[in-house]
Amino acid sequence: MTIKDTAEEWEVRASETPFVGNKTSVRTDDVVMPDGTVARRDYQVHPGSVAVLALDDQDRVLVIRQYRHPVRHKLWEIPAGLLDVPGENPLRAAQRELYEEAHVKAEDWRVLTDVYTTPGGCDEAVRIFLARDLSEADGQRFEVEDEEADMEVARVPLQELVGGVLGGDLHNNCLVVGVLSLVAARNGDGLDALRPAGAPWPARPFDV
């Protein structure tokens, strides 16, 4: 048996959007179950995101600390952001986020992993990139606002982050998945065996 997620879409008898926000919305679908009954499912409609695990030549990961109001925490995270434009190339979006949040650029990019963050209640898909060969970006720093104005930036040894994840001290989804995926990749076929940065992403098809 091949262990692989497969695309499938059950019949939707009715659909409505009771809430539309600035970036996301809430949809309610009446979905036909396998036994023929109809169940109502509410979920957040999300444009998708990218995240960047930026690894320097001292085996440190670039992380940011940012206030997240829904969970009432300041979380250590890796740079990330929304796919604001339909069909936007995720690599270009990731490069933009790394520049805007850390004023850093990278020469080597690969796909680390693709995840659905909370598939039981949101359709958000995230592509996490591995970025290496880091250097300071050219030009002026991006002007931040709102929560990002209070953001801290640091470089933390990879193994320290692994300890924080397994010890229950670090909770951000992309950081947890990215850090553990990086360790798994190293212990497997190696980082150079990761998918190229432009690998297809069926969850969020993009323009080349």
From TrEMBL:
CDD domains reported in the protein's UniProt record: NUDIX_ADPRase_Rv1700 (cd24158)
Source domain of life: Bacteria
Gene3D superfamilies: Nucleoside Triphosphate Pyrophosphohydrolase
Signal peptide: none
Residue ranges of domain Nudix hydrolase in the record: 44-183
Keywords attached to this entry: Hydrolase
Designated name of the protein: NUDIX domain-containing protein
Record organism: Streptomyces caeni
